[in-house]
Specification:
The structure holds two protein chains of two kinds. Chain A is of the alpha+beta class. Chain A has 14 helices and 15 strands. Chain B has a single domain, classed as Orthogonal Bundle (Arc Repressor Mutant, subunit A), CATH 1.10.10.10. Chain B has three helices and two strands. In chain B, a hairpin with a 1-residue loop joins strand 1 and strand 2. Chain B is globular and about 30 Å long. The chains are: A alpha+beta, B alpha+beta. Chains A and B meet through helix 12 of A and helix 3 and strand 1 of B.
Chain lengths: ~375, ~70
């Protein structure tokens, strides 16, 4: 097979980092990476994919975590004829030390193509390209170092969240602890796919929603507070004295008109009842405004990307809930939702689609939650529009 | 309904699995008229005891472990 890749080479031009350059680096050491370049060049030339699903592959005792990939031109690309992906459950918040990163990479160089993706859209560590024969020994080596497979298929996907209180002062609950706790609690649901389709849980510590949980998760946990914003009037005046246009940049942009600037007393007034906790004022004046102290989260359901039906944004299910260990209320709610979905969902029907089919009223009745005004169904169906 | 996993419940699951080649957890729960959470837990225990095994055919099924 020719080493020439003129079409892929185009992707190396420009100021941005190129994955083609990275694969070429790997190709110097690994034949599988070299064949991967060849397969993609051929795909670009033929304008069709040369990957195919070719059956179920996995490791002993697990029904998910490995995604089988085969090339439809094995005689041309023998070293990438099998190119399975392994999803490895990430540590919450993606904290590693260099030793653990080296361990993962060394293991993958031994058993796979050496190509990785930190991190996939699921949050997992994605190890790209190995053979069926190498799956089990690779898994064994990784589990010896304390790693485990993540979710795939019709299972609970690897639970993920923002970095939370580890690095962010706005987080209203400990996202890392919640992600870890739910991951440990629901091991069976992650590793044994038995539902109609995938189910994703994502947690954001505040309404900035840095992990876009509202658009990507069936069960979205977004930190919020029940009391009112904390405003440091001295710090506010410092902003204004230094030329900050508080009226234009903050007060006029408050979506619910909850803020008022008194130019005479130099005071920012808040009508707490009107605040919708959008975080705009906090983001603009982080030294002067903070979330309240009675913290917890809003739980939303139904976010998903378009596959069977269109994209959905999550909508509110529980307006406010305390998020504290051992998180029993959240776990019970999840189990009720799964039972309802497992019993009533059609094959490849996500939770949002099921709720739309049977009606929000019936869903709420089945899981035992009374309707409240905050459950606006559904405010917007296109998650790709951001303000 | 008791929230304990009893030996009787486990035996009911095994007896049902003798009548089918494979089953999903929810099918087992429905067939023996038991709470699904309990059946999930009992199946996990039976798996650890080596009496049943999981098979993955796109979705997870269970069946009696062959000697």
């Amino acid at each position: 097979m020719s080493d020439e890749t003129p079409l892929l080479d185009e992707l190396e031009k420009g100021p941005w980092p190129s994955y083609v350059t990275q694969i070429k680096r790997a190709a110097k050491k690994k034949k599988a990476a070299k064949d991967l370049l060849g397969i993609q060049e051929l795909s670009y030339k033929d304008r069709v994919t040369h990957w195919k699903h070719g059956g179920i592959v996995g490791v002993t005792g697990y029904g998910s975590g490995v995604i089988g990939r085969y090339c439809d031109q094995p005689e041309k690309f023998p070293d990438a004829a099998q190119f399975h992906t392994m999803r490895i459950n990430h540590p919450a918040g993606w904290f590693y030390n260099t030793k653990s990163l080296r361990e993962i990479c060394d293991t993958w160089e031994q058993y796979g193509s050496g190509l990785t993706n930190f991190h996939g859209s699921t949050g997992d560590i994605i190890l790209l390209g190995t053979t069926t024969e190498n799956l089990q020994p690779c898994f064994d080596a990784l589990t010896e170092k304390g790693y485990d497979l993540g979710g795939s298929g019709s299972a609970l996907r690897t639970i993920t969240g923002c970095v939370g209180q580890a690095r962010c002062e706005w987080s209203n609950f400990d996202t890392l602890n919640l992600v870890y706790d739910l991951t440990m609690e629901f091991q069976d649901e992650i590793h044994r796919p038995r539902w109609p389709y995938k189910f994703k849980i994502k947690a954001s510590g505040c309404p900035n929603d840095c992990v876009a949980a509202i658009a990507r998760a069936d069960f979205t946990i977004i930190g919020t507070w029940r009391d009112s914003l904390r405003i440091d009037q001295t710090a506010i005046r410092n902003y204004v004295d230094n030329g900050f246009e508080i009226k234009t940049l903050v007060v006029d942009k408050c979506p619910s008109g909850a803020l008022e600037w008194d130019d005479r007393t130099k005071e920012l007034k808040l009508n707490a009842e009107d605040c919708v906790r959008c975080m705009h004022c906090i983001n603009k004046m982080p030294k002067a405004i903070r979330p309240g102290t009675d913290c917890g989260a809003t739980i939303l359901v139904g976010g998903k990307a378009p596959i069977i039906k269109g994209a959905y944004l999550s909508w509110v299910l529980i307006p406010f809930i305390k998020v504290e260990p051992p998180y029993e209320e959240i776990k019970d709610l999840l189990r009720k939702i799964w039972d309802f979905w497992d019993e009533n969902g059609r094959t490849r029907e996500r939770l949002a689609e099921l709720i739309e089919r049977v009606g929000l009223k019936n869903f709420l009745k089945e899981i035992g939650i009374p309707p409240v005004p905050q459950m606006v169904y559904k405010p917007r169906a296109n998650p790709y529009v951001y303000f | 309904m008791s929230d304990e996993i009893t030996p009787e419940l486990k035996q009911k699951i095994i007896d049902y699995l003798k009548t089918v080649s494979k089953a999903k957890n929810k099918e087992v729960a429905r067939a023996i008229d038991a709470d699904k959470h309990l059946v999930d837990k009992a199946i996990a225990e039976l798996s650890k005891e080596g009496k049943i095994e999981y098979i993955y055919l796109g979705a997870s099924f269970i069946k009696l472990k062959e000697d």
